[in-house]
Amino acid sequence: MHSLSSTPLDGGCKCGTVRFRLEVAPIITHCCHCKDCQKASGSAFCINAMIESEHLTVLAGVPQRFAGAQSQEVARCADCGVALWSYHAHFGAAIAFVGVGRLDQGERLAPEAHYFTRSKHPWVRLPPELPAFETLGFPQKPEAEARIGAVMAKRQS
Which of 78, 73, 77, 76 is nearest to 93 (CA)? Predict the structure, then answer.
């Protein structure tokens, strides 16, 4: 469970050209072990904070959008090339998947679930108290389900 209380989370790229803010707590923070995330991160998984794009405010700079794997788009800094967040084809630009490592205080957002564990590295040990899904899934989190439902309803109208 994460709490931003009244303090939003700020983040940015490596060179400082792009700065942004998460205005509310993410819908969910998760580790993704899919092969695309492994390649994009250069690591065993990515940690993403899923948030409605309307609650992601760019404070400085202009992120550039690039085509990513499997119909995804990635917002990057045009100067240093750092990937800041991505948009999944299922949600379009309505929900951003913000790389937690891009946040100034990313340690405030602990993972709440693990996705695509079927392709996780065998040496990665998953905490038994967190939900883990072989592909996509959603832990029992009514507020998150409501927020995603609201975004999807707007997309369809």
Answer: 73
Residue appearing with tokens 């991160």: 41
Q: Which residues pair with 103 in a beta bridge?
A: 11
pLDDT along the chain (157 residues), means of 10: 65 98 95 90 93 97 84 90 91 93 95 95 96 86 87 81
Q: Of 27, 23, 18, whose CA–CA distance to 79 is shortest?
A: 18
> Could you give the residue ranges of the DSSP H alpha helices within the chain?
35-41, 142-156
Segments of the chain assigned E as strands: 9-12, 19-22, 28-32, 46-52, 56-60, 64-67, 73-76, 83-87, 95-99, 113-115
Global confidence as pTM: 0.88
Q: Hey, what CATH topology would domain 9-156 get?
A: glutathione-dependent formaldehyde- activating enzyme (gfa) (3.90.1590)
